[in-house]
Amino acid sequence: MNVSNDNPASTSGPVSIATKDACVDFPIFDAKSRSLKKTVMGLVGGNIDSGSKVPVIEALRDVTVNLEHGARVGLVGHNGAGKSTLLRLLSGIYEPTRGIAEIRGRVAPVFDLGVGMDPEISGLENIMIRGLFLGMTRKQMQERVDDIADFTELGDFLHMPLRTYSTGMRVRLALGVVTSIDPEILLLDEGIGAVDAAFLEKSKQRLVQLVERSGLLVFASHSDEFLRELCDTAIWMEHGRIRQQGELDEVLRAYKGLPA
Question: Which residue, 190, 206, 213, 238, is the most exposed by fewest CB within 10 angstroms?
Fold first, then answer.
């Protein structure tokens, strides 16, 4: 295993992500039932290595990617194919069990819109905390608070504890913060829902602007429309392996079984 994660507050060189024959395994030390193994597979994807004394979930197998500054990559594949696990490998959250992963640049991992938010404090306080969690400075977030507040359309609710918010209100707040940052490497796992159509359209515009500000994008999504709006190349994941990578429309056609 070889891991390099140059992830300071800012980088002097161009951002990039490279993996070579990277594998991610999850040993299951108390897998007494098939249902437990199935549950874990549903969360991370991949295959079960039944030859090992301790059952091992082979979440990613022999993954090789080279992403440079300017890359706009869509991740496609069925649920459990390994897309979310790959995003976590590319972010440095998961280290490869075998193989190499090198990440150069400040990573903004946006996998769960609710991560880093505290239900007991106000929306305004959560804006600050979530921004810090995504790699911004306190000064940068203070400069963005008014813009985020206007975008969310939450008004006086911003002064109330997050626990008083509906799901849709929480998504609005989280999207406001996420789309205000300046990432070097942006890793997005599609999780936009529970908001009305008009607000979703408004969010898409800000997401496009967010992607334009980022040095490198990897975006996991089931929406062809959204992928075409944000990406120009794609990686098709299947059973924890890369089935195909290349130009976006070409990969989408192959994934859907359409003629070239």
Answer: 213
260 vs 176, 252, 255, CA distance in Å? 39, 10, 11
Residue carrying structure tokens 């301790």: 54
Residues 6+ apart with CB under 8 A from 76: 83, 220, 221, 222, 227, 234, 235, 236, 237, 251, 252, 255
Q: How far apart are CA 106 and CA 134, in angstroms?
A: 9
Residue 120 has pLDDT above 80, yes or no: yes
For residue 147, which of 123, 104, 179, 122 has the smallest C-alpha distance? Answer: 179
Cα dihedral sign, 197-71-87-46 = positive
Give 241's strand partners.
238
Q: Are 93 and 71 in contact (CB under 8 A)?
A: no
| pTM, full prediction | 0.81
Q: Which domains does the chain have, with CATH numbers?
A: 2-106+222-255 (3.40.50.300)
Pairing of β 185-189 and β 107-110: parallel
DSSP symbols for 185-212: EEEEE----SS-HHHHHHHHHHHHHHHH
Distance CA 128, CA 132 (A): 6
In Å, what is the CA distance from 1 to each residue of 49, 89, 91, 105? Answer: 19, 13, 16, 20
Work out the average pLDDT over 34-49: 58
Look at residues 107, 77, 76 and name the one whose alpha carbon lies nearest to residue 93. 107
